[in-house]
Amino acid sequence: MKKKVYVVDDDAAVRDAVGMLLSIAGYEPVSFSSPEEFLGACSQHSRGCAILDVHMPFMDGATLQQELIRREIGLPVIFLSAYGNIPMTVRAIKAGAVDFLTKPVNANLLLERVEAAIEQDEHRHVELEQARLNSSRLENLTDRERDVMKLAVSGCSNKEIARHLGISHRTVEIHRSRVMQKTGSASLLDLARIAAEQEPD
Amino acid sequence: MPFEQTGFLSFFGMSPDAMLVVDSQGRIVLVNQPAEQLLGYSAEELHLKPIESVIPERYREAHRAQRCGFARQRKRRAMDSGLEFVAITREGVELPLSISLCRLDSGGEEYTVATFHFNEAESRFRQLAENIQEVFWLTTPDKHEMLYISPAYERVWGRSCKTLLESPSSWMEDIIPEDRERVMREVALQSSGKYNVEYRIRNPDGKIRWIRDRAFPVKNKSGQIYRIAGVAEDVTESKRIQSELLESELRRKEAQRNARIGSWELDIASGRHSWSEELFRIFEMDGQEVAPACDVFFEMIHPEDRDAVILAYRRHLEENVPYGITHRLCMPDGRIKHVAEQRRIEFGENGLAMRSMGAIQDVTELKRMEKELIDRRRELDELQKWQVVTQTISAIAHELNQPLFAISAYNGAAIRMLEEGNSDCARLARILESAGQQAERAGHSIREMLEFLNDRDHASEAFDLKEIILNALSYVRSDREANFHCALRIEENLPPVFASPIHIKKVLVNLIHNGLEAMEEAGVEHPSITLSARAHPDEGVIQVSVKDIGPGLSDTRKIFEPFHTTKQKGIGMGLAISRSLIETQEGNLWFEAGLGSGATFHFTIPLAT
């Protein structure tokens, strides 16, 4: 499946040329002449990356970036600017932009950065998927299993868990093996990672 | 009739002098014809009336007292002659008279016969005295008796004449303590004729008056002083004016000093120069050491200015024409002073030039401030120019980078197609064609920028705005394929404006383009632009307005920022540059958003003066 690249630029020629380049390079470009249109078309589930012009009427690139963050749209962002300046670049990168390129950008360089952004998106997607999976695994645990897991990942031995919860050593062992099984953990370390990701507190 | 046997009556009737006979109770019993004429009453009217009836009110009391005292003496002798007496006629005119009194006994009764000696000169004096502002007074040399006081005393001193007649030194009681002793000393000089003093009195109402009092001794035939006459004048007002004059003179001097204006004068007949204190101060010379002279001044003038000043000065004297010149002076320590000099001729009554009067002002500080102001303005101009340049460069960057970036992307796409062996010729052609268009777009932008930059140095001039508006309009029409309607609302007989016509045309073209593009993008079916111009003479400007019938401006926050464009294809300068251009012409550019009805841009251009 072709990867989507959102192009947001108020200059029609730029949209057309970049779109052409991207489609020939095997991407699926989606162009917007204004940030509003773009915001209306993407969501938290959007995949791919976005190329945003910094200077646009009514809403500049930085404001758009803030809006994307506010809406939890995690698309990797490449900024394009007709004239870049360092503070603007630093601000954009700090806010999470993948890149900040100054027009005119070499076509190959742009494609490289698009590729990198797509990879980042893939990576992001895998992580999201894993997190979603982990969370669904933990969701299957019973309350008692959850208690056992919490004590186990905090370093308690089975005996200690049994004493703490006032249940038999044998019961702890059964709960524990079920937890390992349900969460797909091969080791206590695995389990600890999954638990930490899901319940940072 | 008691007087018949003495033959008195025939004498009484024959006398050319006015005579009255008064009985011991002070009643008039006989009046002769001259007295009737003098007083304006008939004998019948005065019969048995008290003698005081013919005496002015203010003397009546004193007279009555005197009369009674006189009656008590009961002496049979000719009484005083030449006594001062003031009579009042039926018409109210006061007559200063001298009278002789004698006693007459008849039928066991005592009568007094009064003979009036009408003194015309004195009477005139009296009339004058009674009617003028000054206080006339007449005393005995020993000052024990106040013989006469004119009614003005009541007005000036605020006291009745009667009190003064009764108490002849009461006038001094009103002199303020600071002056009183001095006046009392001076009073001794009255007999010598040297009494001339100024003092202040405090009226009963508290008002302070300045009095100028003079006295003249009056001698009798034998050369003895027998009266002292005096005039006391209320000089409060003239004192006030005097002190004001003094003050204004001081102020003028002060002002001259503050403004550093020196004045000088040449008396043409004598060739004598006189310089004011401030002039010496400007020249940094000591008035005690240096005598004012032309050469002294000429030597101080900066060598580069000297000839011009001397020429102007000579011409001024030869042709009697005024002149004004600003030049420099060299101080001994090498400092330079800037002075503004003005001279004029003052003519005498005979029409001949009498004096050459001049003023010279040290304007060094003014010059310095002026220069500072010019420097500041230049800095500001530089800054403004720099701002325009920065904006222009930014605009160039934007306008060039967009097409260049598009070309680069098209180029990349074409190469990639060729590398991949993609033989979609139609697509390749479209890509290359688009790239070519973008190259042209870049070229167009560069041309516009160059044009703009070249135009920047075009000088301002006075021109007819209407012509430029029409010019801009035809430029837009020839430059654009799209047809549009244009309504012109240009006031008749617009006064000429002062600006760079090319810049104004640029701005007009830009604003018309903006409007047309806004309407085009909004899909307005019959695009229309209204151009209006009207003069605001009060503000010294002409206001030009460009209105479209597009959707109006929805977001106006950054409308004047560079790169702020809502359009697909800009003409490259944008409103930021237009505004900079108008502001460098000392005008303003602003807009009305006109949401739904069409945006209007206004700008002003100063009138040519």
Can you tag this structure with a few keywords?
heterodimer, A: 201 residues, alpha/beta, Rossmann fold, Arc Repressor Mutant, subunit A, 2 domains, five-stranded parallel beta sheet, B: 609 residues, alpha+beta, Beta-Lactamase, 5 domains, five-stranded antiparallel beta sheet, 17 helices
Assembly form of the protein:
heterodimer
Outline of chain A, from the CA principal axes? elongated
Rg for CA atoms of chain A: 24 Å
Main β-sheet description of chain B: 5 strands, antiparallel
- Order of neighbouring strands in the sheet with most strands of chain A: 2-1-3-4-5
Integer tally of domains of chain B: 5
Name the CATH homologous superfamily of the largest domain in chain A.
Response regulator
Number of helices, counting only DSSP H or I runs of 4 residues or more of chain B:
17
Strand content of chain B: 25-35%
Structural class of chain A: alpha/beta
Helix count of chain A equals 9
Task: Walk me through the structure.
The complex is a heterodimer of chains A (about 200) and B (about 600). Chain A has helices spanning about 10-25, 35-40, 60-70, 85-95, 105-140, 145-155, 160-165, 170-185, 190-200, and strands spanning about 5-10, 30, 50-55, 75-80, 100. Chain A is of the alpha/beta class and about 200 residues long. Chain A has two domains: about 5-135, 3-Layer(aba) Sandwich (Rossmann fold); about 140-195, Winged helix-like DNA-binding domain superfamily/Winged helix DNA-binding domain (Arc Repressor Mutant, subunit A), CATH 1.10.10. Chain A has a five-stranded parallel sheet, sandwiched between helices. In chain A, helix 3 links the parallel strand 3 and strand 4 (about 75-80). In chain A, helix 5 crosses helix 9, helix 6 (about 145-155) packs across helix 8 (about 170-185) and helix 6 (about 145-155) packs across helix 9. The model of chain A has no long low-confidence stretch (mean pLDDT about 85). With about 600 residues, chain B is an alpha+beta fold. Chain B has five domains: about 5-120, Beta-Lactamase (2-Layer Sandwich); about 125-240, Beta-Lactamase, CATH 3.30.450; about 265-360, PAS domain (Beta-Lactamase, 2-Layer Sandwich); about 370-455, Helix Hairpins; about 460-605, Histidine kinase-like ATPase, C-terminal domain (Heat Shock Protein 90, 2-Layer Sandwich), CATH 3.30.565. Chain B has helices at about 10-15, 35-40, 45, 55-75, 120-130, 150-155, 160-165, 175-185, 235-260, 275-285, 295-300, 305-320, 365-420, 425-455, 465-480, 500-520, 575-585; strands spanning about 20-25, 30, 85-90, 95-105, 110-120, 135-140, 145-150, 195-200, 210-220, 225-235, 260-265, 270-275, 325-330, 335-345, 355-360, 460-465, 485-490, 495-500, 530-535, 540-550, 590, 600-605. In chain B, the strands form five sheets. In chain B, strands 2-1-5-4-3 form a five-stranded antiparallel sheet. A five-stranded antiparallel sheet of chain B has the order 7-6-10-9-8, with helices on both faces. In chain B, a hairpin with a 6-residue loop joins strand 6 (about 135-140) and strand 7. The longest helix of chain B has about 55 residues, at about 365-420. Chain B is elongated and about 175 Å long. The interface of A and B includes residues 25 and 83 of A.
